[in-house]
Each structure stands twice: as structure tokens, then as C-alpha cells.
Amino acid sequence: MIAKIGHGANIIGALSYNQLKVNQENGSVLSTHRIRETVNGEFTVNQLYPSFEPYLMANMRTEKPVLHISLNPNPKDSVSDEDFKKIAQDYMELMGYGDQPYVVFKHTDIERTHIHIVSTCVDRYGKKLSDSYEKLRSMNACRALEQKYQLLPATEKNQNPKEVIFKPVDFKEANVKSQIASVIRHLPKYYQYQSLGAYNALLSLFNITAEQIKGELHGQSKQGLVYFALNEKGEKVTNPFKSSLFGKQAGMDSLQKHFEQSKVKMKTAPAKDILKNSIEVAMHTTNNETDFKKQLVDQGVNTIVRRNDQGRIYGMTFIDHESRTVWNGSQLSKNLSANVFNDLWKNEGNQKVQNEIQHNKTISSTGRKNESKPETEKPHALFDFLNGNHSTHATTDFGLIESLGSLLPVTQGEDYEEQVFANQIKKKTKRNNQRGKK
């Protein structure tokens, strides 16, 4: 069984999301705890909210007092409604939320029948209940409930503590090529992605991007791949590194094979429905892009948003570090496409563009002395699995891994091969253009 815990500020959004499933006959209210009863046993958002209101009104400091938990048994498990009720009660007790008001919803809109629990993490006096080691405690609770109710266990891969540590590339260091190599040589071993766009979304967490180059040589079409290091703004700041410098696995042919293999594996991946569910919950329980990303990153998911110069969102990619899969929003659901998020955050996107324009004007007039770094996506702390570290230590915003050292090889001298390759590409393009004129 897999548990996902979301923290938010919008109890109405959490209740409305689940009530919508009930109204669409894709869900039901299984049980309640410390919730006012109704005459006919049926509930609405307006009827449920007053039971939470005293707790939320008493809260003075906690920014995200709302708990939204999903419990997902293996699809092969046959769990009755009565067992779901008991599992929910036991889970809340084990997590320290047994005395809180909560509602248990069952969802049947996907193949994996699962339950949602909406509650609050502040007590009746407004004091926040401890969430220390929450992820570890949740995993232990799930393992205990699997044994108690004879559920299929959620398998976890054994990690090698000697594995290389993933670390964002620092283009200011001398060994940029080695830094890039340490990432791209190992990503295919751990992650599934179905396209170059998804691959680049994953690479962007490490300040890397890849570009495909197409051309013609001796009458035959050729294609290759080059890699660049990026700065904190996502701008290319190095000469291109051709893929052959990092081995065959970094080239386009190997990537295409990996894309095809990933399509097969991800087609039946149970994590797809869980991820879709988590994203939908975040959409309903947050009010802006920043909170949306933060809620998902707390659940092990990075969100990559791509905008054009006008601020319009044209791409949404979600990187699930627990299942180690990369998804475009439209692959998960039509309701998670770029257009949907563009409408959801339209005003915010326009504001981002205006802020960027103003920021550039300020730089041009006052210099870069006090330049502030914009918000960027960083690798989630779940990348610590590569170092055999399963602790729940604190991370910076958006899950930047605290540097634990590196196994990167040291380069000897400066490498000019990349510049030579770039010049060759320019010469080939020039020759092709001259042939075309003839």
C-alpha cells in the first residue's frame, strides 16, 4: 500500500474535490470521525465544513493546516468497504491524528480503488500536531497495515550506498564535462521517460539540456545530440558537448531505445493513477503555482512549467521520484494539459513576464551587483536514494539536495574538443547552404 500526504490551506478545495467524485458517482463517503451527523446520512461540503471550522479558527500560525491523504492498495488486493474503514482509522491512529475530525472517501474512478482522508493537522486548541519524520512514520504505518490486513506489500528497490551522487552542474567549475557525465550516464538506469522533451525536463533539474542536431553527410541524413550546461536562469553557458564524449548510452540511438522501453513499462505503471490523483488534489487545494509545486515536491514530485515569451504555458512535465517516471500532463489526463494550467494560472503567468521585464530593466540601469536569483527547479531530496540515505532530513525549497560530496572524476587540463565540434557543425551547414545555392 502506498500513502500520499498533502498539506494545504484550502479545506473547501479538498472537500469539494472529493465531493465531486461522489456527485459523479465515482466515489462515496465511507466513514467520518468527529463530524456532525446528518439526517439522511448524506453529506455536502457545506455540511462537512462546520466540523473543521473550530480547529481552523483556533489556528493562529500554521500556514497549511489541512491534511489530504490518499491510501492506495495494490490493484490486486481485494479490500472491502469495512476493511477500508478500519485501515483509515488505524492509519490515522498510527500517524497521531486519531483524535482529529476527518472524512474518509472511497474513489472508484480509476482501476485502483483507493481512499482519501480529509482532516486537519491542528488540534482543537489551534496547536499544530507534530509531523516530524512524517514520511518514515507513514511508510512504517503502511507496512504494519499490510501485515494486519494481508495486503500485498509495496516493493522497494535495494539501493547501493556506493552509487554516484546526483548533483546539479556548476558551470563555474573547471570539470563541467565530468559533471555532466556523472548525471547522463546514470539517469537511464533509474528513470523512465518517453521523449526528448521529458528527458530534458529531467536534465533541467541538474542544469543540463540536450539538443538534437540533424544534417546531411555524403548524401545521407545524419542526426546527433549535443549537451550544454545551464546557468540558474536556464540559459546555455557552455560550448556544446557532443554525446559521443559520454559514451553510446548518451547518444540519440540509445535514447530512442530507452524511450520505446519506457513507453511499454509506463503504459501499465500503477504509479500513473497515483500521480494523476496527487496532481488533481494539489490543483484543488492550492491557490497559486508556487504552493502547487511545493505541495507536490513534498510528495516526491517535481513540476517543470514551460512558458513562451508572452507568459503562456505550453508544457507541463511531472517527475515522480518515487516511481522514477517522467510524465507530460496530457499523458496523465486531458484535464492536466498545458492549456488547463495556463487558464488556472493565467494572471500569475502574465505577472511573471512583467516581473522579468522589470528585473531586466533594473539590471541594465543599476548593474548586476545586487542581482537576485530567480526561482528554479532543483533535484528533489529523494535523489538521496543514490547515496543510500533514507532519512527525512530538511531540504531547501523545492528539494535541493544538500551537497554531500561528489564522486566526479577530475579532468586534466582544458578540453577544446567541444569547440572543434561546434566549428565542424558550422562548416557543414555553410557547405550545405552553398550546395543549395548552386
Q: Span between N and C termini?
A: 67 Å
Radius of gyration: 25 Å
Q: Mind describing the biggest β-sheet?
A: 5 strands, antiparallel
Give the neighbour order of strands across the main sheet. Answer: 1-3-5-4-2
Helix/strand order, N-terminal first: EHEHEHEEHHHHEEEHHHEEEHHHH
Helix content: 25-40%
List the total number of helices.
14
Report the sheet-strand fraction: 15-25%
- Are there runs of 5+ residues with pLDDT below 50, and where? 156-164, 363-375, 385-420
The overall pLDDT, averaged over residues, is: 81
Give the class from helix and strand content and strand pairing.
alpha+beta
Secondary structure: number of strands: 11
Overall geometry: elongated
Describe the protein in words:
By secondary structure, this protein is of the alpha+beta class. Helices cover 39% and strands 17% of the residues. It is built from 14 helices and eleven strands. A five-stranded antiparallel β-sheet has the order 1-3-5-4-2, with helices on both faces. A three-stranded antiparallel β-sheet has the order 6-7-8, with helices on both faces. β6 and β7 form a beta hairpin. The termini are far apart. The model is unreliable at 156-164, 363-375 and 385-420 (pLDDT under 50).
